[in-house]
Amino acid sequence: MFQKNRLHSAVIAATAAIMGSQAAHAEPKQIEEVTVTATKRAESAQDIPVAVQALGEENLENLNVSNFDDYIRHMPNVTAGGRGPGQSSIYIRGMATETIATQLSQANGTAPNVALYMDEAPVSIGGRNLDVYVTDIERVEVLKGPQGTLFGASSQAGTVRLITNKPKLNEFELGIDAGLATTKDGEMSDTLETVVNLPVIDDKLAVRVAAYQSNEGGYIDNVAGTYTPDADVNPVWEGLPVESATNEDLVEEDFNDASYQGARLGVKWAINDDWEALVQHTHQDLEADGVFDHDPENVGDLQVQRYFEDSLEDSFDLTSWTLEGRLAALDVVYTGAYLDREVEQSMDYTGYNDVGGYVDYYTCNTAGDTCYDPTKAYVGTIENTRTSHELRISTPQENALRFTGGAFYEDVEILDNGNFLYPSVADLGNHENYPRGWAPDTADDIPATVIDPNPRPAEVAFFNDITRTQDQLAFFGELSYDLTDQLTGTVGLRHYDMDVELVGSANSSFDTLWGEDTDEGGGDNLDQKWVEEGIDTPLNESDTITKFTLSYTPNSDVLLYATYSEGFRPPAYNRGGGNSNADGSITIPYTVSTDTVDNYEAGWKTSLADHSLQFNGSIYRVDWKDIQTAVFDPSVYFLFYLDNSLDAQINGIETDITWLPTDNLQIIGALSYNDTEITDVPESAVNVAPEGSELALSPALQMNLRARYDWTISSFDAYWQAGVQYSDDAWSSIVVQPNDRFKQDAYATVDASVGLQEMNWGVELYAENLTDERAELFINTLDGSKRTTTNRPRTMGVRVSYDF
């Protein structure tokens, strides 16, 4: 983030030449090539037949990108649905279905269909993106369309990769970046980032350290309110003596602040002329309070009413290692990684009173003459560990016949230990018909808990104690052959064998209400269920996916290509498989298979006008079948389940342009258009929108445009930059009942900045969301009440940087 890259150096050199000597024969400025590793080789983005968009280090700095939300909004044809830092899902090319409540989605939900990588390490998890702070990042790559042959599971719609800067031999670098910002009607924000590259042994050893701390001020208020269950909203309260809840102890302005703190250490060792090793470790703590979705309809602009403390602590350690070199004519790479992530979260769940089919039983005694505090909450811990290993070889790039391939293995474990707290349950525990809390039956052959074997506190009405594991072994390869000097064919294959397992239980503390034996009547012991129902465990899926590409280069400045590709994501269990809703009209399947994707794509990449104009694009059709869909349904005892619920087709086009009309001016723009349509709705447990409807979170039109002008003032290099981002309207969900399907409005945001730099020092003034637009990024009813995730209000700030 702090190092001047080649593009920056080119800008300064070109400006000096024009403003200084005004040499008559100076070469016109050209667009700098961006090197990516989308094909598992380091190649120019313009030379590979893959739809890849990259934000390099200079652009990340110019756009003031600091976290996940920042880089997503600058990528057309990429959207996200979520409810705050580290609580989002990524979608590409309109391939979106649902964003499920974070208290339900980890062990029980679908795997994402866009893979997130940090360098060579896969770090995806359902519903909780790894929100890495963008410090000392070389580039962010977005690979659009199925990338399953090279990047494996969850690369079904595409892959997002964060590529870090690596240690450099024989170079000393020091960078410091500090910032201060104010948000309209919100709190101040501040950042401090630093990076140092230390050569330790000449030509042999170097160390690179990056550290950061960012405090993002809040802008949503938790305002005073009183909540009373309403029979007009949920009929189960009809005739009951309801009690009210108040949030007076939690009232706070700007309560949704967030902080990122972390460091990354990298060590590079040049073993000899042919081999080098790299080890990196990243640690980050993300903390957030409050919520990042507001209730403009019922409470007010940037306001909510919450009755239990909302907080998030999301920490991860990622250690990765790479050994690369040459064996004869082969390039050999072995890379591995270990991710250890722990999330602790508490959130208000009082809105469940408005949707729960049996919520009166949890709040009132059986006689119905006494009801207690209606406040409800979720407090849980999610632990995710992931170990991955990949060994691959590549033949020389200059050969007419080229091969890249190898083997991949990963072991993923998700521990979901979540308690649903109802204070009324503790009060009911004093009633003779309601035992207090839950305790395991130690005589069971198969235990109901695998994470926490202890009795649950009296106020815990329900809990999840579920472990999900995923093991995968895959063999992959891509073979390219130059049929002529201008025509190249590529064939890619990946064979994978995957096991997914779900163990533990979802349980209730109401022994007498649900059955004398809690493990049988009070909940689902998943191990016992699979045995009794004859369900295979672990769930195994094995298949081979393919990719075929034909590329044509009529000259060195034009690349045309056509691709057919497939992708996949893991299958899943339903923890509530076999259960039915109250009238028996819905039976939940025990397992859900992977959905299938057939992607047909034609693209072009061009460098024109002496490399001062770059115009790329692609058109595509995606046939998406047996789509995994999740639903939160309070009418069913187990609330949350999955099914292969629909087929859909997406037809689209995406383009991007970079233009240098003068040596001082740069214009960058991108556009995407998607026509999404549900083509078939077979009978399933999930009630989705009818045939002909649009998919969720899939705006038809997205585009952005920005201009940057550089010039010299005395001894200073100066610049200004302005940009606009636009997103069309979109549906919030594909599920029509019991969830609500809302139309999210179109929006446009405007950013601008101006700056000066002299030698090693720089200062910038910037403004984001100049028009103070309230973007409807995601409308949800996941806690039982309608709320809208929005963008940060107008923010103005200053950044000061020093690079040595």
Automatic annotation (TrEMBL):
Residues 45-159 form the TonB-dependent receptor plug domain. It comes from the Bacteria. It is a multi-pass membrane protein. Pfam families: Plug, TonB_dep_Rec_b-barrel. Residues 1-26 form the signal peptide. Its main location: membrane. It is found in: Cell outer membrane. Residues 300-770 form the TonB-dependent receptor-like beta-barrel domain. Gene3D superfamilies: TonB-dependent receptor, beta-barrel domain. InterPro entries: Beta-barrel_TonB, Beta-barrel_TonB_sf, Plug_dom, TonB-dep_rcpt-like. Keywords: Cell outer membrane, Ion transport, Iron, Iron transport, Membrane, Receptor, Signal, TonB box, Transmembrane, Transmembrane beta strand, Transport. Belongs to the TonB-dependent receptor family. This is TonB-dependent receptor. It comes from Microbulbifer halophilus.
